[in-house]
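Can anyone check this?
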Amino acid sequence: MIEALRNAFRVPEVRNKLLLTGFILLVYQFAIHVPVIGVDRAALQSVLSGPGAGFVGVLNLLSGGAVSNFSVLANGVYPYITASIIFQLLIPIVPALERIQREPGGQEKLQRYTYYLAIPMAVLQSLGQIAIFNAPNIGGGGVIPGFGVDLFLTATVIITMTAGTMFAIWLGDLITEQGIGNGLSVIIFAGIVAQAPTQLANLLTTSNRVVYDILLFVIITLLSIVVIIYIQEGVRRIPVQYGKRVRGRKQYGGASTHIPLKVNPVGMIPLIFAQAVTTFPAIIVNLFPRGPVGDSILNVFGNQQGFGYWAFFFCLTVGFTFFYASVMIGNQNLAENLQRNGGFIPGIRPGRRTQEYIVRVTNRITLVGALFLGTIAIVPGLVEALNGLLFEFEATTVANNPARVIAGSGLIIVVGVVIDTMRQLEAQLVMRNYEGFMR
């Protein structure tokens, strides 16, 4: 691998792509330290250390640490991700969008629409995020004093945060087009990696059992990486046979190939969905007067602790995995494309029967992927339960949980981005007669 990296830097085109990617990530890291106008730093610190610190950390994940500074990039690229998910869900429902997708250049047109939708999504996220930070039950007390009262300040903050989102999306597109890797994923990856040393330092400074926590952190990280790679790279190959066609004196077709169905075809999108839904109860509680029920809900979903929260999170992750996998398989129209190209699955009648067979196989292998994602999602909860058994008389908090240094969803992003980037580098090197990373 070291030799392959040397070869990458020997090739001017690949070296320039790597340097450009690094420079863009550096620009992004500088930008996350530029705060929004009017931020009260003392109020912001009270939110970060208040009762909702665990759930504010969720918002901090996809922004690459910008939320902890309430930066102009506090929304991160999440509005664009939300907009792209909305379009993926609407395509099989809205016939006009399905026709656009099948037209020449349809994907580019849908991507442009996704950019347009990302703007109102960024505005809505800005309003929601400020409302969360200003909520007294989360520990806030006016992170941006005068927001909602001063019209000029309110408009300036919303426009600034929306512009920051579009700037982050533009940086991601630059990486995709002129750098190495998928730009948005690389930006999220860099943010997670940049936060890891701070999270580890917080763990060491708040822990009374440093050796145990470090050892547990190393074991969880290494074991999670191995399992994630094993599941993410796992595929079920469905054999496909193409019929022979004779044109004149030449014979075409007759080849055998396969359809690779991944065990986890949806990546970490179900985790994003589930994480977003689990934040709603704590937000809704702030809209009503406080009481015993409200305090209980806020304690569970605001602090992200307890059996109820983790069971709810696990069930949501599994459910969203099945839902999104079925949507993705439906959008690909595998049975229709096979029939159009003269292909068929041996022993299965083309058309509807083929589609039913693919859906049945997908559901079976998705069960493994769904349980995998659900388990990865609740690893912090499992560690919390383990610490409760081993250290019964010590309080377990978010800060002293080794599994929260890099959460399961963060590890999935990190491993996935590293594998994808290595494959792209390998392709660049193989084109130039160098050996790649993968063996």
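Reply from J.R.: I decoded it. The two ends are 10 Å apart (CA to CA).
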